[in-house]
């Protein structure tokens, strides 16, 4: 006999737990199923983001930044320290403590909102029947008036570089090194490769990043990518573009790589190899043959713009559907779907989802890049402003980077904002907000920004769109 629910959510990552909590808030009897276990072998809610992604990587990025600043920046402030040491195990322990705090926090939120958790692997069958293979053995059956699929994503594994958890790792393994590798190789110069490469470079590793594409950060604005690449190379990250890896072999505790740089075959030997070539929807075993839910060629669940799968009462959200694989995109889809189920309006604007890379300097953008606008034949104008001319950035000794505002050439409506520099993960939301309200560059230019702040760069960049920035030659 299956237990009946108004809503059954499969997956307790960012998309799933938001959907479950919001559904429960709206008075719907809700269950949420998750298969993940923590390092202690106990259930750990929160998905990749909380357990082995967003949160732990930011903890290590902050720890490594403190160490880097102690060695390279504090002297400018007249601060000196002798015989400074770093204990990597303590750093990893701090990260694990933060993860446990947040995964436990989700469990408490489920309890407070009366969401019923189930732990195990779930499969959707026809008529919204969900069978759960529990960790402790046995199977339970749940049936929902609505089922929300929020299975998340997994790291893509290369056939010639299989994860062994010791020498060749994904993001999970790279978050748990117990000591600084002397030589770290990274395949892929995307978000994960750059962030985790930066962590271990700051701590003393020689880091070589091999990127198959000829362009660096092709998804970002070209000017931002160019500025970021320059800064990363200054920091000592060895980023090799157009490097197509064909072989990775572990020999005597070392990883021997072969790659083509477009001219000839090259080799590289490292102690650890991080494979960070992207992620794919985690749909394996999720759908029974009779579920009726369809997958596209990329293995993602097919949905319409409101996250409906086409099967009555079955929805899908987060990394397992179209759109950017970003936690905050999953947040919004989870809430929107819960509200649609409850008969309320619900919508997510994929055109205003902000992107952030938490390197040093940070990289962030929202909306269209110049290349995208050129390709689409949309007339535009731009304004940019460097952080080197912003008093707060110089006082912080972080003058690298700039802000670029892109507006429609005729209507002045903001089409994109692209940033590289200190704390731009926070600043990008001025662009998100302005675009959501269909704001213009002039709107931003006429809004008073406190002085001295980093956000003044946005103000001056908006003014520069019409060549009236005060603090730079137009």
From TrEMBL:
Presence of keyword tRNA processing: no
Reaction(s) catalysed by this chain, per the record, are: N(6)-[(R)-dihydrolipoyl]-L-lysyl-[protein] + NAD(+) = N(6)-[(R)-lipoyl]-L-lysyl-[protein] + NADH + H(+)
List of residues binding FAD: 58, 319, 325-328
Q: Any idea where the Pyridine nucleotide-disulphide oxidoreductase dimerisation domain is?
A: 353-461
Which top-level group of life is the source organism from? Answer: Bacteria
Q: What are the BP-aspect GO terms?
A: 2-oxoglutarate metabolic process
Stretches assigned to coiled coil: none
The record's listing under Pfam families reads:
Pyr_redox_2, Pyr_redox_dim
PROSITE patterns named among the record's database cross-references: PYRIDINE_REDOX_1
In terms of InterPro entries, this protein maps to: Class-I_Pyr_Nuc-Dis_Oxidored, FAD/NAD-bd_sf, FAD/NAD-binding_dom, FAD/NAD-linked_Rdtase_dimer_sf, Lipoamide_DH, Pyr_nuc-diS_OxRdtase, Pyr_nucl-diS_OxRdtase_dimer, Pyr_OxRdtase_I_AS
The protein's name in its UniProt record = Dihydrolipoyl dehydrogenase
What species was this sequence derived from?
Answer: Arenimonas fontis
């Amino acid at each position: 006999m299956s237990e009946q629910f108004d809503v059954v959510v499969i997956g307790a990552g960012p998309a799933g737990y938001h959907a479950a909590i919001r559904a429960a808030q709206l008075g719907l009897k809700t269950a949420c199923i998750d298969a993940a276990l923590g390092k202690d072998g106990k259930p750990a809610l929160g998905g990749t983001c909380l357990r082995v992604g967003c949160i732990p990587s930011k903890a290590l990025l902050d720890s490594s930044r403190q160490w880097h600043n102690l060695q390279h920046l504090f002297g400018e402030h007249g601060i000196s320290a002798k015989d400074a040491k770093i204990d990597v195990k303590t750093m990893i322990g701090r990260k694990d403590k933060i993860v446990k705090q947040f995964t436990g926090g989700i469990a408490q939120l489920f309890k407070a909102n009366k969401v019923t958790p189930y732990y195990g692997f779930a499969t959707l069958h026809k008529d919204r029947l969900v069978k759960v293979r529990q960790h402790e053995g046995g199977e339970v059956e749940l049936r929902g008036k609505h089922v929300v699929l929020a299975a998340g994503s997994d790291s893509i594994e290369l056939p010639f570089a299989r994860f062994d958890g010791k020498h060749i790792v994904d993001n999970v393994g790279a978050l748990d090194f117990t000591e600084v590798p002397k030589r770290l190789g990274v395949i892929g110069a995307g978000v994960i490769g750059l962030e985790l490469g930066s962590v271990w470079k700051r701590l003393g590793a020689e880091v070589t990043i091999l990127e198959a594409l000829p362009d660096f950060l092709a998804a970002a604005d070209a000017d931002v990518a160019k500025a970021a690449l320059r800064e990363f190379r200054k920091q000592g990250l060895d980023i090799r573009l157009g490097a197509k890896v064909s072989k990775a072999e572990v020999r005597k505790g070392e990883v021997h790589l072969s790659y083509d740089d477009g001219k000839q075959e090259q080799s590289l030997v490292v102690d650890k190899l991080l494979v960070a070539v992207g992620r794919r929807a985690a749909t394996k075993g999720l759908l029974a043959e009779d579920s009726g839910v369809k997958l596209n060629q990329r293995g993602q669940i097919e949905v319409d713009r409101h996250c409906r799968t086409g099967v009555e009462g079955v929805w899908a959200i987060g990394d397992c559907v179209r759109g950017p694989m970003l936690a905050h995109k999953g947040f919004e889809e989870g809430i929107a779907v819960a509200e649609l189920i409850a008969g309320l309006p619900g919508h997510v604007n994929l055109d205003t989802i902000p992107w952030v890379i938490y390197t040093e300097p940070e990289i962030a953008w929202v909306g269209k890049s110049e290349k995208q606008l050129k390709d689409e034949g949309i007339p535009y104008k731009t304004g940019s402003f460097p952080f080197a001319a912003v008093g707060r950035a110089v006082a912080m000794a972080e003058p690298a980077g700039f802000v670029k505002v892109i507006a429609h050439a005729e209507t002045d409506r903001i089409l994109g904002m692209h940033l590289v520099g200190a704390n731009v993960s926070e600043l990008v939301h001025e662009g998100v907000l302005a675009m959501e309200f269909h704001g213009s560059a002039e709107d931003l230019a006429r809004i008073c920004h406190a002085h001295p702040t980093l956000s003044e760069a946005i103000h001056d960049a908006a003014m520069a769109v019409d060549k009236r920035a005060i603090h730079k030659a137009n």
